[in-house]
């Protein structure tokens, strides 16, 4: 734990479908350290985190070995995640993501992530994709 | 893993039970299982989510695909025993009216 009461966890994995289980486990491990995180905060944060990791994995798909770094933070005020991957640059504006038609079979991931947390952002930083999410704790 | 249960239900009905996380790993399998089940004559599909630890948008997409497959065959797809996390995903995507949660498998099977 750092001086500001924020706990951290970090993981570096190949961006494959199997890494999703490791990311869920990393979050569970982090939250053991933090008292009183409300179920709604945890659930919403985990939904957004899983969507963004799945996006990275899907985007990495055909591009060979892509490495993904996941950094999680949990403090008195909020839950945060930063994802860094060296896959191809993403052309997307998270702020513009909207839900598709009710019977669409795909295309909900980013809109769902945005609805679940307070902030979702993306930046290309020196050739690295950087996604970050913040969920302010309600309880 | 997805259990398929056809014992003790009508010949046009099947109960599917996904285990674990219904995400990009398991969602393609659910699509296949629904398609095979409907092709086999059981177009009234109930997906029992009591053993589903977590569902993401790809799992949701598989349920929508299954709903369309079942309806095209004159049947339906219903979800039952929906955990809180899945309920949250349905609410956030405004799909709780398209995929209306049923309390139990029996209720989902019984309603005609």
Work out the number of β strands of chain A: 5
CATH first level of chain B:
Alpha Beta
Quaternary status:
heterodimer
Instruction: Quote the CATH topology of chain B.
Output: Transcription Regulator spoIIAA
Query: Which superfamily, in CATH terms, is the homologous superfamily of chain B?
Result: STAS domain
Summed up, the domain count of chain B is 1
- Counted by DSSP, the helix tally of chain B is 4
Task: Write down the secondary-structure element order of chain A.
Answer: EHHEEHEE
Q: Greatest interface and its residue counts? A: A-B, 28 and 24 residues
Largest sheet of chain A: 5 strands, antiparallel
The global form of chain A is: globular
Total domain units of chain A: 1
Description of the molecule:
The complex is a heterodimer of chains A (139) and B (112). Helices cover 32% and strands 29% of the residues of chain A. By secondary structure, chain A is an alpha+beta fold. Chain A has a single domain (9-136), classed as 2-Layer Sandwich (Heat Shock Protein 90), CATH 3.30.565. The longest helix of chain A has 22 residues, at 39-60. Chain A is globular. Chain A starts with 6 loop residues before the first strand and ends with a strand. The mean pLDDT of chain A is 94. Chain B has a single domain (2-110), classed as 2-Layer Sandwich (Transcription Regulator spoIIAA). Helix content of chain B is 39%, strand content 26%. Chain B has helices at 27-39, 57-72, 84-92, 105-110, and strands at 2-5, 13-18, 20-22, 44-48, 52-55, 76-80, 101-102. Chain B has a 5-stranded mixed sheet. At the A-B interface, helix 1, helix 2 and helix 3 of A face helix 2 and helix 3 of B.
């Amino acid at each position: 734990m750092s001086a500001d009461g924020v706990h951290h966890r970090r993981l570096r994995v190949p961006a494959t479908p199997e890494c999703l289980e490791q990311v869920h486990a990393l979050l569970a491990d982090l939250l053991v350290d933090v008292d009183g995180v409300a179920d709604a905060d945890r659930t919403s944060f985990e939904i957004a985190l899983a969507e963004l990791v799945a996006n990275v994995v899907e985007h990495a798909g055909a591009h060979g070995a892509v490495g993904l770094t996941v950094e999680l933070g949990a403090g008195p005020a909020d839950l945060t995640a930063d994802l860094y991957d060296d896959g191809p640059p993403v052309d997307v504006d998270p702020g513009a993501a909207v839900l598709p038609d009710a019977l669409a079979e795909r295309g909900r991931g980013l809109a769902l992530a945005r609805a679940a947390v307070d902030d979702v952002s993306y930046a290309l930083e020196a050739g690295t994709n950087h996604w970050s999410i913040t969920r302010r704790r309600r309880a | 893993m997805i259990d398929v249960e056809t014992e003790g239900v009508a010949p046009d009905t099947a109960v599917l039970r996904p285990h674990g996380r219904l995400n990009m790993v398991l969602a393609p399998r659910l699509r296949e299982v629904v398609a095979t089940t409907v092709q086999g004559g059981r177009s009234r599909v109930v997906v029992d989510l009591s053993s589903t630890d977590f569902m993401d948008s790809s799992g949701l997409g598989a349920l929508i695909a299954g709903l369309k497959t079942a309806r095209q065959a004159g049947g339906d797809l219903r979800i039952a025993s929906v955990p809180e996390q899945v309920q949250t995903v349905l609410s956030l995507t405004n799909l709780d009216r398209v995929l209306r949660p049923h309390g139990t498998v029996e209720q989902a099977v019984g309603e005609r």
